[in-house]
Amino acid sequence: MFHVNYARCLGGALIPLAVLGTLTNILLFFPGAEVMDNNVNLADEVWYFGGILGCGVLMIFPAVSLLSLKNSAGCGGQEDCGKKFIMFNSIIVSGIGLVGALYAFTISVVAINRGPKCFVGNNTWEYPFRDGNYLKDRDLWSNCKEPIHIVPWNLTLFFIQLIISSFQILLCGIQLVRSVLEIICEECQCPETCGGKRIA
């Protein structure tokens, strides 16, 4: 039968990850723990809201849906329809969460590779790094004059966002695959395929 308790555990795990992902994105608006005089000087990836939208908002759907699941035991009739609805709903919300996590993951990778936007002198704000070269050569960090500590600040927060979205991809992916397999076994009623019992 559809393992409701397992799904609830996944939903419960997604909530703190969503909160942390949202917080990392918010902190990115304050590079070096400072308030920017002009928000135009913030990196483009900060405005893509990878943490707020991808790790946060879109993760609310699978988290709330999976946590609110109820057991629907039995077979045939309304009970059977109830189980199928639960499984289809699980596929949809897990898919939404997976899309959000993949979005945040992509934004994080791009941001880490590109590096932060910073003041380099001569009244110029730009991206002084190319193709992640600053990751291997810390001496290049000095190219960013302001905000202070902008490079480790952005690198740390986007790396945290990368890790968070990776866990979310894993959790939503697992639930999506489990739900699809459960529907297949429900439809085929094949003991050989399902190991003689429903997936738990």
Tell me what the structure shows:
The chain is mainly alpha-helical and 200 residues long. 64% of the residues lie in helices and 4% in strands. It has six helices and two strands. The chain has helices spanning 4-28, 44-47, 50-67, 77-114, 150-188, 191-194, and strands at residues 118-121, 124-126. The protein is elongated, with a radius of gyration of 22 Å. The chain starts with a helix and ends in a 6-residue tail after the last helix. The model is unreliable at 72-78 and 190-200 (pLDDT under 50).
From the alpha carbons, calculate the radius of gyration and give it in angstroms: 22 Å
Q: Name the helicity range.
A: 55-70%
Strand order of the largest sheet: 1-2
Strand content range: under 5%
Biggest beta-sheet profile: 2 strands, antiparallel
| Average pLDDT taken over every residue | 87
Ends distance: 6 Å
What features would you highlight for this structure?
single chain, 200 residues, mainly alpha, two-stranded antiparallel ribbon, 6 helices, 64% helix, disordered C terminus
Structure summarized in a few sentences:
With 200 residues, the protein is mainly alpha-helical.
Architecture blueprint of SSEs:
Blueprint: H1 4-28, H2 44-47, H3 50-67, H4 77-114, E1 118-121, E2 124-126, H5 150-188, H6 191-194
Antiparallel strand pairs: 1-2
Helix pairs in contact: 1-3, 1-5, 3-4, 3-5, 4-5
